[in-house]
Design goal:
The protein is mostly helical. The protein is built from 9 helices and no strands.
Length: 192
């Protein structure tokens, strides 16, 4: 079952809901965003990258060198981080308490952090970045050049994008060369 697209849509819906509800005080909308986050975590394991993305975004938001937060307030980022951790914890506790483990097939057994997988991942990511994401590479290079010159108006956007892509890639590295391109859907959100 290839549920990456569904997981990506759910994650985007949760972020959009949080963006819309941010200036308002409607608690039930925050619960709806939390429910969407929980559904995203139960849909695919690759969405667990969110548990690393949001705390990193919170750190970037508190880093005064980059100015005030770009899209989400610091309070909103704290809430998103708490929702992501709560959803991840609920899914993990449920899986452990019910004895649900990853399928022991050949594909799941390839998920190991070893030298061969690191080399395979470097080859896959190098190839994929050049072939699938050339515009992203050019955008990041242009953003870095503008930031270095001091003319980049909003420095947080490229940094938040890099954080999202790095956390997604880090979660996928242990698959090595066995990684399938459809697992890059969560990575694609960051590059978009």
């Amino acid at each position: 079952s290839k549920q990456e697209f569904a997981a990506a849509c759910i994650v985007l819906a949760a972020l959009l809901l949080v963006y819309v509800v941010q200036p308002h005080r409607g608690q039930w909308l925050w619960w709806a965003a939390g429910l969407l986050m929980l559904v995203a975590f139960t849909t695919r394991e690759t969405t667990f990258a969110l548990a690393g993305i949001f705390p990193a975004w919170l750190i970037v938001a508190h880093w005064s060198r980059f100015g005030k937060p770009a899209h989400f307030s610091r309070l909103t980022l704290r809430r998103i981080t708490a929702l992501a951790f709560l959803a991840a914890a609920l899914v993990w506790i449920t899986r452990v308490s019910l004895g649900i483990h990853a399928a022991a097939g050949t594909y799941a057994s390839q998920y190991q952090l070893n030298v061969n997988n690191l080399i395979g991942s470097l080859q896959f990511w190098g190839y994929s970045l050049v072939r699938e994401f050339p515009v992203t590479i050019l955008f990041l290079a242009a953003a870095a050049a503008l930031a270095w010159r001091g003319t980049l108006r909003d420095k947080q956007i490229p940094l938040l994008m890099i954080v999202w892509m790095a956390a997604s890639a880090a979660l996928l590295v242990p698959w090595g060369s066995g990684l399938r391109p459809y697992y890059l859907v969560i990575f694609n959100i960051g590059s978009a």
